[in-house]
Amino acid sequence: MTADDLKALIRTVPDFPKQGIMFRDITTLLADGKGLTAAVELIAGRANAVGCGAIAGLEARGFIFGAAVASLLMLGFVPVRKAGKLPVATIGIDYALEYGHARLEIDPTLIRPGERVIIVDDLIATGGTALAAAQLLRQAGAVVDRALFVIDLPDLGGTKLLEANGIAVESLMAFEGD
Questions:
Q1: Is-catalytic flag, 98?
Q2: Which of 10, 46, 61, 155 could make a disulfide contact with 122, Cβ separation 3.0–4.6 Å?
């Protein structure tokens, strides 16, 4: 399947979660076995081409793609969790959301010092969550210089934010607008 074939599997839901937003729903891609497999293989190919020691996935949909990519490449998977979800000692980072704040946490024992970790998530919008995850992984000793996404919403500036912080970004597809 091509990137255009995959893009055709993404459902657009107008006015969700609020008026004027065009929500890009990946559940229709996830429900298509060939599409899901193709998306995972394309992301894995990009990760494999640059090499890494582990894949980090952002809660929640980044777990779907990240764990599948890690498995395909026979790499470890590092879950980047919302606060309070891990049963062990964690390190965390607080970051700003559009309307408030949130916190991400990881188990730092999952990172080997100097290990190259690639972030995988379903979508990049403003880039705030991905940047916070990169900062947290770096705090744990990882080298984070690449992030891979299924969808980019370039008008929201996330790719530019990550690139300004030393993180190369690749996405399988882009949707203009919000």
A1: yes
A2: 61
